[in-house]
């Protein structure tokens, strides 16, 4: 049934199976729904200082990575902080949830508990992604394998026509995951299946004509009621910045490398709170020297660029961390960049991208 044959095992990093990057082992900590308490933020800041490179790196799935983890003890710290409730399931706790929806956030917590309680689901590929969208269309456009969008069930971003209430959302998403395990062959993602109908055919619910939903990705930056939407530059938080956020209270890490801080936040120049800040439209992989495959220090080059349309800088053709939504593709070469496939010298990047923004 799979439309592509995977010839290697899924090597998606976690806490126990880290990735050997150029700057040392990389550990990925899953935050289902992005929810993180103040105490957990402090625990991650301490782990980054004591075991890693002193920073927390946000991912495009609303998770946190620690880089350069060369000293032991991370799993014990995470367990004590409540960030590793099921070692067997730690790589499959991939759950997005609308940060501004109480319903989606509560369902994400319930889904995480239910997922970890099913032993067979520990066998899901580490790239399989759940999403719970409260109706804004924010996380529904982030490439989830199965998404509940305020009643609608989407597979690989496409509406199936199946409608289930919030009361049945968790069991529906888990039913899809179980069916995927039975049918996947060598596939890692639902989008790789030739036919997705068997994934939902036994799930009770109402049916409707499938429709194309609008998407509205992103977290508003700046004040949001009593909370604040912030964006760390390139999604990198120093341990000191993480402690400032913890001092403000609990938070939600989003798949747009931003954070919803649920309390009064102390000002910091590295935490963007201005919705008009030019750098908000720019993302980048880690680049050199952190990645041996990168052909350039993409973050240093990206920092020299002013206001642009949405842009992602990538150091190699893997394009790690690229946004799910439409963006300008900036790919490093040996002596410059390909901007949407057209060669541009480093010195011409700012002008070229500024022109892109006026087209």
Automatic annotation (TrEMBL):
Residues 27-70 form the Nitrite/Sulfite reductase ferredoxin-like domain. GO terms for molecular function: precorrin-3B synthase activity. PANTHER family: BLR3264 PROTEIN, FERREDOXIN--NITRITE REDUCTASE, CHLOROPLASTIC. Keywords: 4Fe-4S, Heme, Iron, Iron-sulfur, Metal-binding, Oxidoreductase. It is an enzyme of class 1 (oxidoreductase). The keyword S-adenosyl-L-methionine does not apply. It holds the Pfam family NIR_SIR_ferr. This is Precorrin-3B synthase. Its EC number is 1.14.13.83. It comes from the Bacteria.
């Amino acid at each position: 049934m799979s439309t592509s044959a995977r010839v290697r095992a899924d090597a998606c990093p976690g806490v126990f199976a880290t990735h050997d990057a150029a700057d040392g082992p990389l550990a990925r900590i899953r935050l289902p729904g992005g929810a993180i308490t103040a105490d957990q933020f402090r625990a991650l800041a301490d782990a980054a200082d004591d075991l890693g490179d002193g920073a927390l790196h946000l991912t495009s799935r609303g998770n946190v990575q620690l880089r350069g983890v060369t000293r032991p003890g991370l799993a014990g710290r995470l367990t004590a902080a409540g960030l590793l409730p099921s070692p067997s399931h730690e790589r499959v706790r991939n759950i997005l949830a609308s940060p501004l929806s109480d319903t989606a956030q509560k369902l994400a917590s319930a889904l995480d508990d239910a997922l970890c309680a099913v032993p067979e689901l520990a066998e899901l590929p580490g790239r399989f992604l759940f999403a719970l969208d409260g109706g804004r269309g924010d996380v529904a456009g982030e490439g989830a394998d199965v998404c509940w969008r305020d009643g609608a069930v989407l597979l690989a971003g496409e509406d199936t026509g199946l409608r289930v209430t919030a009361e049945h959302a968790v069991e529906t998403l888990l039913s899809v995951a179980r069916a995927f395990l039975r049918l996947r062959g060598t596939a890692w993602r639902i989008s790789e299946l030739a036919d997705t109908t068997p994934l939902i055919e036994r799930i009770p619910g109402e049916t409707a004509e499938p429709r194309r939903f609008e998407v509205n990705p992103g977290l508003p930056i700046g004040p949001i009621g009593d909370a604040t939407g912030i964006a760390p530059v390139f999604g990198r938080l120093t341990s000191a910045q993480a402690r400032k956020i913890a001092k403000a209270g609990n938070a939600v890490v989003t798949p747009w490398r931003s954070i919803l801080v649920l309390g009064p936040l102390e000002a910091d120049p590295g935490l963007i709170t201005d919705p008009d800040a030019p750098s908000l439209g720019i993302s980048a992989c880690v680049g050199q020297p952190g990645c041996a495959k990168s052909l350039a220090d993409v973050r240093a080059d990206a920092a020299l660029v002013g206001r642009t349309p949405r842009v992602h800088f990538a150091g190699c053709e893997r394009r790690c961390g690229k946004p799910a939504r439409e963006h300008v593709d900036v790919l490093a070469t040996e002596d410059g960049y390909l901007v949407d496939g057209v060669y541009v010298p480093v010195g011409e990047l700012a002008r070229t991208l500024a022109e892109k923004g006026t087209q």
